[in-house]
Amino acid sequence: MKENKLPHNHDRNEEMILEKLPSAEECGLVAEMFKQISDGSRLRILWFLCHCEECVSNIAAAMEMSDPAVSHHLKTLRKAGLIVSRRDGKEIYYKLADTEVADLVHRVCEEMFQITCPLE
Asked: Strands 83-88 and 54-55, how do they pair?
């Protein structure tokens, strides 16, 4: 990281803070992740997939949405690395990705919704 010099010295530990300051690229990646879960329908689908593996038709029925609308959200969540899919015959099943980021998003959602994971 390049050395930052602030124009004013207020003797408030700025140097220690600047040493830990995330890069613009890191902040961009985190902002992109938040953008992926900023849609209410997508967030609801993600929460559902945190607790089960399901196909598009069943997800659509549970969300009271059309299959194409759910497929669009699933594509976005998969591209963000929050969910994974597997094919079984003609069906494709989706579930939460086994990553630290996906697990963190799951825990944050449950904390914000003030609910406990139904599988615990």
From this structure: unpaired
Distance CA 60, CA 116 (A): 23
Nearest-angstrom CA–CA distance, 41 and 25: 28
- Please give the chain's pLDDT, 120 residues, in tens: 455 666 666 666 777 787 888 899 988 888 888 888 889 999 999 999 999 999 999 999 999 999 999 999 999 999 989 999 999 999 999 999 999 889 888 888 888 877 666 665
Length of the chain: 120
Contact 80, 102 (CB under 8 A): no
Contacts within 8 Å (CB) and 24+ apart, 67-71: 69/41, 70/45
Report pTM.
0.75
Domains of the chain: 14-113 (1.10.10.10)
Which DSSP letter does residue 118 get? T
Q: Which residues contact 27 (CB under 8 A, 6 or more apart)?
A: none
Contact 53, 99 (CB under 8 A): no
